[in-house]
Design brief:
Pfam families: 4HBT_2
GO molecular function, one term: hydrolase activity
Structural class: alpha+beta
Distance between the termini: 19 Å
Low-confidence stretches: 145-159
InterPro entries: HotDog_dom_sf (IPR029069)
Strand content: 35-45%
Helix content: 10-25%
EC number: 3.1.2.-
Protein name: Acyl-CoA thioesterase
Length: 159
């Protein structure tokens, strides 16, 4: 399964008084990963966001397995879990990279569901996921989830 990934080194500003990473940063890293995906794979969607497209996060979760501290190296991997006409769900894996051995250790995993909306101000309505974003996401679909044939969800026949 192909995943989109970003690298990150934890900074002091991301830790709490105890010295471990404050939980909210995992959610920030989800957003950063999603944003960098748009910059690299669907930059035209950013133009639509500057006009009237809105990507509302309607659900976000994270499960923690180990603590992180300042200056630990991470890889955040994002995959596509679900793609409907108007919503996208991503899965995230947070992996600590051991500099000595080069091995990865899963320290957390999360999910995020996003709804595509259009409108101005407080008046918004659901809208279809932009076609360029659908095409960009196809290679990142998790193959083991039922109903995840994004070719069908994108309105094309599965061959």
């Amino acid at each position: 399964m192909r995943s989109y990934e970003i690298s990150h080194i934890v900074g002091f500003e991301e830790t709490n008084l105890v010295g471990n990473v404050y939980f909210v940063n995992y959610f920030r890293w989800q957003g950063r990963c999603r944003e960098m995906f748009l910059v690299e794979h669907a930059p035209d969607v950013l133009d639509e966001i500057n006009r009237d497209l809105k990507l509302f996060t309607i659900k976000c979760e994270c499960e923690y397995f180990a603590e992180l501290t300042a200056f630990q190296r991470l890889t955040i991997r994002m995959t596509l879990v679900d793609l409907t006409q108007t919503q996208i769900e991503f899965a995230f894996a947070y992996l600590e990279i051991d500099d000595r051995t080069g091995t990865e250790h899963l320290v957390a995993r999360g999910r995020q569901r996003v709804a595509c909306m259009r409108g101005n101000g407080t008046r918004v309505e659901p809208t279809r996921v932009p076609e360029s974003l659908r095409r960009a996401l196809e290679p990142y679909a998790e193959p083991d989830h039922p109903g995840n044939d994004v070719r069908v969800l994108a309105g094309r026949r599965a061959d």
